[in-house]
Every structure is written in C-alpha cells, then in structure tokens.
Amino acid sequence: QVLRKSLQRGFALSAGSFLVYEAHKLISGFAEVHASFKVEEVIEQADYLYGSGETEKLHRLLVQHKNSDDAELLWRLARASRDLAQLSSTSAEEKRQLAYEALEYAKKALEKNESNFAAHKWYGICLSDVGDFEGIKTKIGNAIVIKEHFQRAVELNPKDATTIHLIGIWCYSFAEMPWYQRKIAAALFATPPTSTFQEALRYFHMAEEADPNFYSKNLLFLGKTYLKLNNKKMALLWLSKAKDYPAHTEEDKQV
C-alpha cells in the first residue's frame, strides 16, 4: 500500500509537471506569434509614417524597439535616425550622435540577418555618413567596404533602384576626386579605388530603368554627370526633371 501510494503520488507529480510543461509551450508559442504580429504591426505603421514624411514621429516610434532582434525593424530605425539627422532643425551635435547611432542599428541588423538586402544598403550609407565626421582618410579607407555592401544589396535585390543609384554616387565621387584625395587613396590602397563619369552614368540609368522617376537625386545626378561629360542637351533634360520633381522630403527640397 505504501509503495502504491508513493507510485500514485509520483505519477500525479509527473502528470502535473507534464501539464505545466505543455501549458508553458502553449503560452510561449502564443507569445511568439503575438510578438511576430506586433513586429509586423510596427513595421506597417513605420512604413506609413515614412511614406507620409513624418520623420520625427517615425523615429520616436522605432527607437522604442532599438533592442529588437528583428533586422527589418533595425534597418528601418537606422534609416529613421539618418533621416532625422538630415533635418535642418537638427543641431550639429545631434547630427553627429544620430549618425553613429544609425550605424550601430544598421550593424546590428546585419548581425541579425546577413541576407537582408536593406541591412547591407543602410550599413553602407551609415558608414559613409560617419566618414564625414572622421575625416577624408577614414572616408576613403571605408570606400571599398561601402561599395561591397552596396553590391551585396543589389545581388540580394537586383530591382532596388536606390542601391543601384548609390553605386552610381560612389563612382561619381571617385571620378571627380581631387588630386590630394587621390594621393591619400594611393597611400591607403595598393590599388586605389577609381571610377569614371561614364561608369557613374551607367548606374544612374540602370537605377532609372529599375524604377523610373523614383528619386529626385538620381535625376539631379544624371544631369550633373552629363554636364561633366559636356553633353548640355541631355544635362538640361534631366536637370529639368529634377527641378519639376514634387518635393516630399527635406532632401527633395535641397535637390
């Protein structure tokens, strides 16, 4: 009888433990689904705010999720931080702080998902921004890494016009690089990065083919590049398109 009672008590405890375990699994599963749903909800809200040009509201929304493990949230936060830094109302000190924060968010997004094309794109952009605060030597030193991330982003998403445009900007920057910066580049690299205006023009046109009239700055740089190539007729065509582009963002106004 004692043995039977002990066995019954043991079975009851085991059954109780099993039920607790199953309940925990069920709750955990629900929590994961709920968390996933919440992430999708935040992303949907963030994309709406981004499309509406609500830069400050967007940053306030996403910075609440800066400790997230979701790459989609993190690269959006990197972009929002950078966009906030671009506002004319943002102080010089805040611009610097936001640039470094944006880089950290983009880096974390890459760590969470190396196959996320947007994480590569925004890491490249933010790394370039940080170079503005660290001097020309750092900026040139980071140049190869930046281009590699842009190219990886295009490999992962060949239809992303913005990244193709960014490779064009990279080419344009090296094509017009002044002689003293070329000397720095030669000191940093055995084979310094170089490019031409023809190569930049090819990427700007590729971006326009991928998504026509997608970005005021691409129109501007098509015009500027044609000017560099002494084709004033084509320059006028693209600069006119840039001038007439509806200004939705601070950058559009600057363009």
Automatic annotation (TrEMBL):
Its main location: cytoplasm. GO terms for cellular component: mitochondrion; mitotic spindle pole; spindle microtubule. One of its GO terms (molecular function) is microtubule binding. Keywords: Cytoplasm, Cytoskeleton, Repeat, TPR repeat. It is found in: Cytoplasm, Cytoskeleton. It comes from the Eukaryota. InterPro entries: RMD1-3_a_helical_rpt, TPR-like_helical_dom_sf. The keyword Nucleus does not apply. Belongs to the RMDN family. Interacts with microtubules. This is Regulator of microtubule dynamics protein 1.
